Amino acid sequence: MVNSEYTGKERDSETGLDYFGARYMSSAQARFTSPDPSPSGVALQDPQSWNLYSYVRNRPTRFVDRNGNWATELHGDIVTAALQGYVSAGDLRQLVQQQYVMDRNQGSADSYQHFMYGNGENPATASQNAWSFIANHLEAASAGVNASGGFTGGSIIAFGDALHTIQDYTSPMHTNNFGEPKLWRGLARENFGALWHASGEDSPTDNWYRFGEAIRLTMAAFLQVNPVAARNAGLTEATFDQEVAKRISTYVQNYYAPTHLFGTSSGAAVKEDAARQCALGNPAACGL
Known about the structure:
The protein is mainly α. It has helices at residues 74-83, 89-104, 123-143, 155-170, 188-191, 195-199, 208-225, 227-232, 240-255, 257-260, 266-279, and strands spanning 2-4, 10-12, 18-19, 24-26, 31-32, 116-117, 182-183. The strands form two sheets. Strands 1-2-3-4-5 form a five-stranded antiparallel β-sheet, with no helix packed on it. A two-stranded parallel sheet has the order 6-7. Helix 2 (89-104) crosses helix 4 (155-170), helix 3 packs antiparallel against helix 4 (155-170) and helix 4 runs antiparallel to helix 7 (208-225). The longest helix has 21 residues, at 123-143. The N and C termini lie far apart (58 Å). The model is unreliable at 66-71 and 186-200 (pLDDT under 50).
């Protein structure tokens, strides 16, 4: 016998455990009863991720684990930084949720949806499939926008799916500096455990330049799909660069905000400014 309990998951009334799909969690102990079946959530710079029994890195007020595997954070950060205020709160939640839905599918055959190529696949073919996936879903999203700029039917989901692949295109762990997809499985380095993969995209500091690019492309996609809502919110082709700069600057400032609580040193200020300039597209600032 089961009923719905913690985060809407099914609770086994006999054991008191909540079923997350990949494994069971004991809400009383705030711990899973078995280790994470994937090491993808381990990040060397985040000790909380080293415990494979913990729930969302011991940060339940910030994250929700959808299926018992690792939580996807940066996609949600990018979506929120780029689109908050342009879309309704409900649509924003759906777009963030869709990033988790997309990351549930990690099959080799669908690696192109993460802008990577699978075993035995040609990288050029994977890239073509990825851009076709993006184009088709952006078209479907646009077709579902009504005259007043509202997302209808499944258009918001199609838009969220497209954004995930677009953002993965900007990830240094998914594509190289030429925008070519990397191998998801097959190389010894990748099979090493997706630990290497996760440690390279755990934080925007891993590559501020590409993080800024992700925000820019997310905003560009929104302007393309829903020009009415974009225009009503002040985002047009004429204001695009200004709006991008504003949102990137705000994100970087908020990211470094904790350092201001104790007084910002000159070194910290330089680091923050370099991150901002790098994310805004100045390669010279990225090496500081």
